[in-house]
Records
---
Amino acid sequence: MTARAADRARYDRATAHLDAPVAIVDLDAFDANADDLVRRAGGKPIRVASKSVRCRALLERVLARDGFRGIMSFTLAESLWLARSGFDDVLLAYPSADRAGYAELAADPKLAAAVTVMVDDVAQLDLIDAARGDGREVVRVCLELDTSLRLLGGRVRVGARRSPLHSPAEVAELARAVARRPGFRVVGIMAYEGHIAGVGDAIAGRPLRSRAVRLMQAAARRELAERRAAVVRAVRAVVPELEFVNGGGTGSVQHTAAEDAVTEIAAGSGLYVPRLFDNYTSFSGRPAALFAQPVVRRPGVGVVTVLGGGYPASGAAGRDRLPVPYLPEGLRYDPQEGPGEVQTPLLGSAADDLLIGDKVWFRHAKAGELCERFDVLHLVAGDAVTDTVPTYRGEGRTFL
């Protein structure tokens, strides 16, 4: 029996009492992935990206482990909810236009002490000030650096379009603007190198593209390490009491942690290890989050149909954004239909061994987005469900 076949047997036994659709997290794999992230971080604390987890119970579980500290959130409403729930170090990773949220933040000493907001433009400070109302708490601010690699005099750009602040001088100037402004305090710098941390460099069947990605990433790491260090020096000249410099992501943990200028690493997807993280040479994780759909039809030889399953992930539309049938091994989509809203045909010899009511296990393309489809996660240890915990959706929280 292969390791994957053994996992399927465990998951089927653990969830035999549960009807599909059902979502699980394998705690043995989850904890092993957490240990691997800590090892790769080399002693620097890991801030957990909540968008990749979207379950308070699992955020609490990982933050109770050595090597993890703080949360990186994705909306202001989520940040305030987490702070009210007892999480005392929440960094909002994206600028917000949530005026009601800013009014709440500026009026509550506990929230203002726990939440740090992201800024890359003076106009965002104007919005916060306009939203304050009577709130006079000091708002903690993190400045975001654009990490993109610019080539040929800026005519070629590699990396996500995030912050407009690219040079040390630009970041330092915004730091001075915040320092001059009552009611704000710069406490950190963030620089997320998505073109390194979020792009696989070992693409199956595409050796030339994989080599090109590795060459690009090596050049990007060298350029960013030098520029990030210069940015930190420039900002510390304005804000000597800077508390943290955040960088990285699951795919670049060990590389980012090696930079002296970086004080903490961000990671989250590496806990669940969705399918987009199969294509990396720098690490290998264990799939921990899966969902199962029930077989409801057997249309013919070599084909079964499961209920639902059309759960595409965000990003540029493509096959890599689709979930993949994972267990039993050997199933594939019908190219004429793909994963559907209410039914999904699956082809392959493994289909002939499946009966009506059997479970087919899938892996989602991205990590936390799976939780937007399910109210609860069943936590599996060995071959038993040891707990059932709500996702954000299960707690009535749909932040985006």
Note: The CA atoms of residues 142 and 188 lie 5 Å apart.
---
Amino acid sequence: MGGIGIVGGGIVGLSCALAMLDRGRDVTLFERAADYNAASWGNAGHIAVEQVAPLASPAALRSAPSRLFGIGGALALPPSMIGRWLPFVLRLAGASTPGRFAAGTTALTPLLAGAMPAWRDLAAAIGMPDLLREDGHIVIWDTPATARRGRERWSRTAIGTARIIDAEPGMLQRLGTLTEHVGGAIRFTGSGQIADLRRLAITLEAAVVARGGRIVRQDVRLIETAGRIAVAGHDIDQVLVAAGVRSRALLEPLGYRVPMIAERGYHVRARADRWPADLPPVVFEDRSMIVSRYADCVQAASFVELGDPDAPPDPRKWERLEHHIRTLGLPIAGPYDRWMGARPTLPDYLPAIGRSARHANLIYAFGHQHLGLTLAPVTAQLVAALMLGQTPSIPLDPFDLHRFGNTGRHP
């Protein structure tokens, strides 16, 4: 047979490719370009095991008006993209009931419990254990009042395998003048960080090739033939769609409902000369901003902008990030490299992981929203079980595309 074809060369696709190669399968990975500016490699680098509560929630829905970009928040609903985000927002509202939120938390809890062990296994398998840092992260608030509210909210929030302790004063003091602006801080343990996203991308690609996998740099088209899905022009037995935000365009022509949106995030990067090398990621919760140190740069990231993945970026987002850096007195100095990328987000904020009920040789793994980096290795383990005809380690029903009406023949 023709082996496995994986469409998508981001962190999820590469992790799945390695998992199948290590199980003795023949793998061809399709990625249209070596794009190290994709969302997989431009994110905050945070292994967010604490985020077991879906962002589709009654609380998030209630707070949305106060989080709009126009009044200083991080949620952007561009009027020019209303045709994209309005149907998504309506579905999001429907997914944010107490019952569906509770079910989503139940589904994500075991998935995220496996995230850090799977990352340890992957880092060891590619010979780069130093890429994984398990130093937790810090959450900071601007004022004592917001710190009290923030601490109280986190005390009521499910956080999976993570734990919360007080942030050590010495850790904050390493940020210099920032301590003058801190109203309160906590530290999460059990979470982690990837130390260098670019090195991770290059190492994963090299590991795929070293194990005999093929990386084909081209766009692909999926076609239906004799009740199966094929990659046009290639001899492929099983097909895995792991193309992030591009997965929708691949599957909808085949009759699948994929109500996914591009949830665009922004970051700025600068030289890391003055940022402490051993400091874990720092979340400035009042500003919805996370700052991460990588090997040779420091990055500030924020924003949830719902819309078109290919629309031009909004420079005001970068300007606000740079403003936060200045007003907080962070030890970061320009010039800044500016980036925008699209998270693949489904309206219930759960990923799509499973096997098609209509095409037995089609498997999918996309829609991981803010958790793509976190969940990539554990997703690969689940995908490998599906492809080998084994029972996955956790139930996948909550992540099946049938929840959006993909049952029977063409909808």
Note: The radius of gyration is 21 Å.
---
Amino acid sequence: MITYEVYPGDTLYLIARKYGITVQALMDANRLTTTKLRIGQTLSIPVSVPIRYTVVAGDTLYFIAKRYHTTVESIMLLNGLTSSTLAVGQVLIIPVYTEFIVQVGIANIRSYANMNAPVMARMVKGARLPVTGIMGNWIQVRLYNRRIGWTYRSNGVLTPHSGEKPIEEIFAFYTERESAALPSSYEAFAKQTAELSNVGLFHFRISKDHPTQIEKFPDNFTDSYMRDVVAYGHRHNITMVPTLHNLLYEAGKPSVNRDVIHAMLSTSQTRAAFIDNIVKLIQAYGFDGVNIDFEDVRLEDKEKLSAFFKELGIVMKKNGYAYSVDTPAKTSEEPTNLFPAPFDYSVIGRSVDEFVLMLYNEHGWPGSGPGPVISVGWMEKVTRYAMTKVPAWKITAAVSVFGFDFNLKTNRSTYSTYKMAMNLAKKYNKDIIFDEKSQTPMFAYTDESGDPHEVWFENAQSVQAKMDLAHKLGIRGIALWRLGMEDPEIWTMMAKNFVIRKSVT
């Protein structure tokens, strides 16, 4: 599938005709119950790529570019054309995504196509910006905050994509150092800006003592540090949001997590006060929106939780902010598992821009037994269920870059980053086995006490399998928990095999 943004004058009939599909197929792919469209609405188009167009009598490059919402220059570049003259029967490959890649030290993005126009943003070399139009020597681009600006053509290179390489978005979570083995995410973030669409900073949570307020967690970072990280992301055209959660108050006491959510949700007034503080948080650090990660919610709070998601969505849309919610994995609405039961997929899906599906619970929870954190089978099962409730173009599959070391004698597991797994394999002289069924690497060893272990983790090959599946399913991409624990080769893999879409909509 490809994504399509609705323009003035568009109808489902015209869009379907444009891509050679039926209106019903278009409605089914987007879970539409009405044929009414709104300008700027995003649709999934269930077609295979590359899109090939056969020139008919009367066609011009301008007409074809307008039909597919691309540019004449993009079509010419992609097809190696040196002239705008067309021949009847000529086959053209249609660009489905074009980006402008900055090649100068600093590229100014202006509010309109004039050197005297105000500067909206400054991009650094390597920044990638989605192209939305061209006027003479000016390129119209979309920024990290979804605003549209203009930059001079000589600031970079125009790069059209046919869709032959899957085009996906990458949402990455960023944390501070947790231990000697769990480093800060900063280094990975700073090095891999080209492959990141949006970043959630896991630095804020609901105040336990004042549940309508937001506190720093951990509390040892400065405001200037946070603003610097946000600004760094913006210079590389990355959407930057706080990941606001209700976790890690007291070890071994999940009831605290549930209690603080319960208090925040209790009345429309407490919810409104909390939402007001979210807006203040966004404004204080220059964020582009918010990512909500609520877990351990009481089943009795399901309706109030849904009300909160809807109320927050109204405020985020009013302010033009990006809005995503991290949701626990489930495969039915039956409350057989109380962890995901309070989350109404349909309500959340209608409220958010991005529905982040947390998949990392197949194995690794207490008593689960050994196995992959996320097999491709589990990912497909949960995602396909979510797609019955939420349009595919809104869904992001949150996958692990970590694994677990399972002690088969004690039936306990411990966290294992890619580096930790590699060190264990080296220590015990074990070869890595790639499990074809789950598409996950693993190895087994026996420790000094004689206890048997299995280590299941993630590497570039397993992450690619999940990205390939995301493409097959037609969802927007994947999210990574978290930066700093991954196989460094995943970034080389992404750059080689995928196009990472920026300025998420």
Note: The chain has 14 helices and 26 strands.
---
Amino acid sequence: MRTDSSPGTLPAREHLPAAGAGTPVLDVVVPVYNEEKDLQPCVRRLHEHLARTFPYPFRITIADNASTDTTPHVAARLEVEIPEVAHVRLEQKGRGRALRSVWSASDAPVLAYMDVDLSTDLNALLPLVAPLISGHSDLAIGSRLSRSSRVVRGAKREFISRSYNLILRGSLQARFSDAQCGFKAIRKDVAQVLLPLVEDTGWFFDTEMLVLAERAGLRIHEVPVDWVDDPDSTVHIVRTATDDLKGVWRVGKALATGALPLDRLARPFGDDPRDREITDVPTGLARQLVGFCVVGALSTLFYLLLYSLFRSFTGPQIANALALLVSAVANTAANRRLTFGVRGRGGAVRHQAQGLVVFGIGLALTSGSLAALDAATADPAHSTELAVLVAANLAATVLRFLLFRAWVFPERREDGDRRHPEPEPRPTVVAQNPYGTPYGTPYGTSHGSPYGTSRSSAPYEPARRDSTPHLQPVRPHDTDPRETR
């Protein structure tokens, strides 16, 4: 994806290194609000399932969203009784706020969350996170709308869920099938760059996260799930639907105006190191040709409609110039955004000025064709004029693509060679502990805690020798790595 800003900060996807076990590989967040009855059976069931089936170290983090009942006491007791359970207290409500806080501070390379009611069959958990561990995907979601999913819920919720996803597909061009399923996972390196772009702190949080990830070209893996509706759910459907529609409008507006710096999420082409050593191949040429042809076809139809409109009250030369000018501005804007992937407003005026130069060349070709037609025929038919203009525009289109690619939207490179841009070195990142402070900074100093001032017990501390997560595969003759913790 080509932009006018800095190149993407995400490296190529790689399988998480299989070395000595250190920090947990998976951190499953369970956001709760006044769930004193369901919290303990949920966490114990989830812990038993992970201890029995998940082959790597894990953590279950209870994110208490300012509960007013005895939920904090239940969470504190679970944290004491189960070593793999941690408890975080937030003084403000909002599922999105809870996930952002815990995910941002977690030291696990794979982050997930699920609803406390455990409506989703836990057998889908390992298939959910496996593509993230292997490096195949960036995010993973459970889908209740897949053909192979088995779902038990009322007609009202079924209608609302499917209608909401149709709205996402129609307004934001979302291609993922189920935005609302409370069963998702993300790689830590992706979350570090993606979460700062997500504004919502409530139920729309994960929908916004998925839309931005998909628009940035990240890979989203979908897992069919078996799902049973919780009849005692405390979600306020009308208020949640209203907030979601507001979020759809806000995100759609931001995407339309190019206000989101999605280039930060760009991945380099190819995960195999050999792909990054390919030389003398124009990058993105096939995709750009397809995009340019689509935009060109639509622009030609738009131009012909304008020409026919202007021709009804003016001569052919003036009608051609007006139609070509209006369509050229629209064509440059569409190619800038869709074909060459330039986002944001930076350089837009310069690009339009260069596009007008290209327009001038096209105007010379088409006007010359009309002049030649007038010289050859005293009173040419309207259909003949259109045929000549189509032929002239085809020639101008080829020249326009070459000028756009080489002059208006060239690939950028700092050393002057614009054909093969080199990735900039990644900035040094200071390793941080689960409270957002650099290693070695005492808890409670001026750095503060992203979770607020209340903690149920002493903070859990990750291994400090190396901030890079390492995995230790479990083999049949190995002992369970969790037995030593």
Note: Residues 1-7, 278-282, 413-485 have pLDDT under 50 and may be disordered.
